[in-house]
Design brief:
Length: 276
């Protein structure tokens, strides 16, 4: 039975070395670049529609279509939608950046945020997920380039693939000890508080009068961090009430993810040496 990337990361994250994580990203990009090679845009890339069995599948191509025929509406999973809210080759690259972060952290981006206008405004204003301590420098820099607010500064799928091949070859020659940071020394907090229904749902979005996307300053991140801490305090105040009055608070049913019915199988190789 196929499992999606989100479940795969949750089940295997503690066993994954950075070598293996980089290889996963390379395999996904290898498959993804074939879509762009056919002059098509996926439009809805997220970890719920990338499937894994013995190789990777990119599924849910209902909105996939020609790059020169933009849709009048935006359909997608909000944390993975590019801030320019236009579906282009470069918006797919932004989604790849969110997948790169998710593979590094084992949790979906913006997991504790409601998928609403406020989150859209945060993304437009340059707020991005906190980079996980211990992330290799080259990987981090490439990820940041892919989620830049300016689409013209993001690489195309071929440049991205070439850079990942280079990073992969470099790190395959390094020892796991140099690349793997122990869970005990990793201060990054893993959180799974949000309903999986929110995490895995793509839907129609209508955005009006959004400002020009920009990259966040350090002050933006400080304000966002303060707001998150205030929200946590409010949530903690209600924890005892919720625990006694919500029998489904931590039910296993809430953690189940529904796999997409459609899938697009790619012949993905692990060494990244396939020709374009």
């Amino acid at each position: 039975m196929d499992t999606d990337l989100r479940k795969y990361l949750q089940q295997n994250h503690k066993k994954l070395t950075w070598k293996e994580r980089i290889q996963i990203v390379l395999n996904i990009i290898d498959a993804f670049s074939r879509i762009h090679n056919e002059n098509a845009i996926h439009r809805d890339l997220h970890s719920g529609n990338i499937l894994f069995k013995t190789k990777f599948f990119i599924s849910d191509l209902g909105f996939c279509g020609p790059a020169d025929k933009p849709l009048n509406i935006i359909y997608g999973n909000l944390p993975y939608i590019a801030p320019e809210v236009e579906q282009t080759y470069k918006s797919d690259i932004y989604s790849i950046a969110m997948l790169m972060w998710e593979i590094s952290s084992r949790q979906p981006p913006f997991i504790n945020y409601e998928h609403n206008y406020d989150l859209a405004m945060n993304i437009v204003n340059g707020i991005r997920p906190k980079i996980v301590p211990g992330t290799p420098l080259e990987y981090k820099n490439l990820m940041k380039q892919c989620w830049d607010a300016d689409p013209s500064k993001r690489p195309d799928s071929y440049s991205l693939r070439d850079k990942l091949i280079e990073i992969n070859l470099f790190y395959q020659n390094k020892s796991d000890e140099l690349l793997t940071q122990s869970e005990e020394n990793n201060s990054f907090e893993i959180e799974y508080h949000t309903s999986s229904n929110i995490l895995s749902t793509s839907r129609l979005h209508h955005f009006e009068n959004l400002p020009e996307p920009r990259n966040a300053t350090e002050d933006n991140y400080k304000i966002e961090s303060m707001q998150k801490q205030i929200k946590k305090l409010h949530i903690n105040d209600n924890d005892e009430y919720e625990a006694h009055n919500n029998p489904n608070l931590h039910s296993e049913e809430q953690d189940e993810l529904e796999l997409p019915e459609r899938r697009y199988e790619m012949n993905v190789t692990g060494n990244g040496d396939g020709k374009r």
